[in-house]
Design brief:
By secondary structure, the protein is mostly helical. The protein has a domain of 67 residues. The protein has 3 helices and no strands. The model has no long low-confidence stretch (mean pLDDT 82).
């Protein structure tokens, strides 16, 4: 079995390849902004070229921002989390009495409601019987 080499444990901000990538991306974005500005200044330039000329520097700034954010997050991940003993833990359940009571369903004492529910149950039963028999039940409309 071969020997596996372990890369040196360097901090993120010390990685030359990542720094070079950020520099190349930022310079590339600035070069594209310059190119779009030159296109805008030419006789065939349009407002779209101006928009791109203003947009490309923002991409360059974002690349640099993302690198520094990455470095900060990696540095924070390497540090042990400080103990949080002084902080009071938030409650995990809603105490009783804070939320309003849910409304209770009323009993179906109404004869019209009971008759309508019975009618719906019979329609459902006839649909089930028709499907079991292989018949195609016509679609019903609520109106």
């Amino acid at each position: 079995m071969g020997v596996v080499s372990v890369p040196p444990n360097r901090p993120a901000y010390n990685r030359p390849a990542l720094i070079a990538l950020v520099i190349v991306v930022a310079l590339g974005c600035l070069a594209l902004a310059w190119w779009q500005w030159e296109r805008f200044d030419s006789a065939t330039g349009t407002g779209q070229n101006l928009g791109y000329a203003l947009q490309w520097p923002l991409f360059a700034v974002f690349a640099v921002f993302a690198y520094f954010r990455f470095v900060r997050l990696e540095r924070e991940a390497g540090e042990p989390a400080p103990p949080r003993r002084d902080k009071v833990e938030a409650p995990r359940e809603i105490p009783a009495g804070i939320l309003p009571e849910r409304p209770k369903a009323t009993a179906a004492d109404d004869p019209e409601t009971a008759a309508y529910n019975q009618y719906l149950a019979s329609l459902h039963a006839s649909d089930i019987d028709a499907q079991a028999a292989g018949l195609h039940a016509p679609e019903r409309n609520a109106g």
